[in-house]
Amino acid sequence: MSTIDFISKRDALIRHYLTEEAIKENEFLYGQYTIVSANLSNFLPEIDCGRHINMFSQLLLHKQVSKLEQGSVAAHNFLKTENLTTRTMDLLRSKPSIICTFHTGSYRIINTFLIQNKIPFTLAIGSSILAAEGEDYYSVYNSLAGDDKNNAFSIIDAENPKSVLQMLRELKSGRNLLLYLDGNSGAGTATTKNENRCAVNFLEQQIFARKGIGFLAHAVNVPIIPVINYRQEWKDIRLRFYDPILPDLDEMRDKFAVSVTQQLYDTVSPVIRQYPEQWEAWLYLHKVANVSNQIPPLKGKPDGMFVRFNLNDYGIFKVNKRSFIFQKSNYTSYPISASLYEILMCSVEHPVNKKDIQRSVLVELEEKGVLHYL
Can you tell me whether residue 317 is helix, strand or coil? Predict the structure, then answer.
């Protein structure tokens, strides 16, 4: 793909990003938006909830553009590296390292960056991504590597129970590992309770994060190289390298794994705060959220005639034509009637008369703080 073709396709995606109305008219997308809004409310409460739907649209757009950039050499014309030292490049080219990255910005472009710079690596991704896009990754490699296949690219299914052993073998054979710490999958079953995870502070809450990167680094005594992508603008893609983290072999392995996982999330947090719409993991953050400092819903004084839906603390959505209210602080949904759904959806946009709501239902909504009185 030529640079002109790439720019044309990228700009077409940008022009046709989803509008607020298009999201509201799509049951699946509006449900996704509701979850993303809850995650934003819990982890970045300083962002006004009125901005959430536009941020959700921008998030989906960044995801599409990222996929386009992965398959285009022309995208590298807009790529700039930050803090990429000679020491780091020497580590990547001569010794096995764990490259730790996140689903931010043009997060796929690091694959082509490594291939172009003849850095051998193995990518670990989830089963569903491997099934849907594995051939695309190999196609990109073959198109960029040309006749130089000495450091053949390979992929590990991160959800395979034997994936840890595979990763250990790759590191011991001298190959780098590229791992996404914030994926919604991992070695074995991905749950918030299994032994592969630990609780870490993240933004304004906690999450259950995978600690396998620290375990692997300590077991094989290899450095962890954090790399974070972000876009300053569409034609300015940044790949920011951070100083390698060397494992402390005098420290217990599990203790090191937990502490380095916290360190890695502390590293990415400022980037996510600055560019929240560029972090794809808002789509599935609720799966690993540990909301420890819940804020009770605001309750208005029931002395007015008109009410608005409390979008700060609640969402509303449909699944298979069934309607629900969604409490953001604890990710709990409550079934409601279709008629109440229509009234509440109207109250998201403009005030509605409380007489339109059945008295017993109104009292319950008042008690839960679902409505604001004007």
Answer: strand
DSSP labels, 203-242: TTEEEEEE-HHHHHHHHHT--EEEEEEEEEETTEEEEEE-
Structure tokens at 277: 């719409």
- The answer to whether residue 286 sits within a structural domain is yes
- pLDDT-derived band of residue 260, with 50, 70 and 90 as boundaries? very high
Domain that holds residue 114: 3-290
Please check whether residue 60 is in contact with residue 18, taking contact to mean a CB–CB distance below 8 angstroms.
Answer: yes
HSE-CB for 23 with a 13 A CA cutoff:
23
Helix residue ranges per DSSP H, the chain: 3-15, 20-25, 27-43, 52-70, 86-94, 109-116, 127-145, 163-172, 212-220, 253-274, 338-349, 359-368
Length of the chain: 374
Average pLDDT over residues 173-198: 72
Structure tokens at 163: 């994936």
CA 363 to chain centre: 38
For residue 193, pLDDT over 60 is answered with no
| C-alpha to C-alpha distance for 281 and 269, rounded to whole angstroms | 13
Number of domains into which the chain is organized? 2
Q: Are residues 58 and 85 in the same domain?
A: yes
Q: How many other C-beta atoms can be found within 10 angstroms of the C-beta atom of residue 364?
A: 12
Tokens matching residue 169: 């073998």
Residues contacting 178, CB < 8 A, separation 6+: 99, 101, 110, 111, 114, 121, 122, 123, 124
Confidence check: pLDDT of 186 > 50: no
Burial of residue 200, with CB atoms counted within 10 A of its CB: 0-12 exposed, 13-18 middle, 19 or more buried: buried
pLDDT at 149: 56
52 located within any domain: yes
Q: 341 and 254: one domain? A: no
The token pair at 9 is 């396709």
- pLDDT tens digits, one per residue of 13-65: 999 888 999 999 999 999 999 999 999 999 999 999 999 999 999 999 999 99
State whether 360 and 236 are in the same domain: no
Q: Considering the entire predicted model, what is its pTM? A: 0.89
Residues 244 and 360 in one domain: no
Evaluate if residue 157 carries a pLDDT over 90.
no
Same domain, 233 and 107: yes
